[in-house]
Amino acid sequence: KIFENHHEVLEAWSIWRQNNTTICPEVICLDHHTDVLFSLDNVIENSWQDLNIVKEVIASIRHDQHFDWAVRSKLISNARIISHVPAAIKGIDKLEILLDNTLPSEFEMLNCQEKFRPIAQTLLEDDFLIRQLKEIPKRPYILDIDCDYFPCKEALMPQKINFFNELWKNAQLVTISKETIWVKLLRLKGDNNFDSNYIVEKLVENR
């Protein structure tokens, strides 16, 4: 399932849950940002069961607030977010930020890009993902991918991709958010022809 804005994945997650009511999945997310900001004051448990409410929520929140709503409504059990930057808010219950210690600071990512490029090229490599997740989750999970996780074409051309392939194959559902503007803002210099459409094409290729 492919969406433009990250929070729009709530619709696909809710439809999947309505067809699998006894399973409250984990979400494994790949994202440049953490997207864990507070959503709404009043979140009703199990409101994901009403798709009209879900659509109202999507219209009311931003692209960085959906994880909070998903956990508080019990749409998902928890989320682990492999991010390039730390969370602005600390200690959020059931939302874990996985930040690799090889990543430079956000300032360096944006202003010293050649320092970031060698690491950016490894973001789908087995070694990188195993450092974050240790193993493929054994319980049901959704794989959620924000295209701004990938800052350059080389990030989509790993040498060893077995772990990511297994992560994709074993997911109950895969959602992709294009986030076209953020991809353009965060892509490395010299990658001007690199956009969200290219990323989506490479992600779904041969799957």
Account of the 3D structure:
This protein has nine helices and six strands; from the N terminus they run βαβααββαααβαβαα. With 207 residues, the chain is of the alpha/beta class. Strands 1-6-5-2-3-4 form a six-stranded parallel sheet, sandwiched between helices. α1 packs antiparallel against α2.
Please supply descriptive tags for the structure shown above.
207 residues; alpha/beta; 9 helices; 6 strands
Please give the number of β-strands.
Answer: 6
Q: Tell me the strand percentage band.
A: 5-15%
Any idea what the shape is? globular
**Biggest β-sheet: count, sense, barrel?**
6 strands, parallel
* Classification by helices and strands: alpha/beta
What separation lies between the terminal Cα atoms? 13 Å
